[in-house]
Structure to design on (97 residues):
């Protein structure tokens, strides 16, 4: 079963607090930030330019969007959400697009 989670804006104050809660509940946790971050147990950090994101990994079923809204175009956000929902019982947590 697909049970991965991606958190955009993971280096924010809210993202930092959330990351401490996620690893045990998901098969993988990806933390996306504009800049590289120090390693953290149970978290896979990636420096990601959200304007270039077009797909999610196949195991991602949850997307928590904490990054600044303009960084992720509304049509891209909709595409990623649809992709996550198709890969499992996907969930999007973040501002309405």
């Amino acid at each position: 079963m697909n049970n991965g989670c991606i958190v955009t804006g993971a280096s924010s104050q809210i993202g930092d607090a959330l990351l401490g809660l996620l690893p045990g509940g998901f098969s993988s946790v990806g933390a996306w930030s504009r800049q590289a971050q120090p390693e953290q147990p149970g978290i896979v950090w990636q420096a990601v330019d959200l304007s270039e994101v077009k797909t999610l990994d196949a195991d991602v079923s949850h997307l928590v969007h904490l990054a600044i809204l303009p960084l992720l175009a509304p049509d891209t956000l909709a595409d990623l959400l649809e992709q996550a929902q198709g890969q499992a019982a996907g969930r999007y947590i973040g501002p309405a697009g």
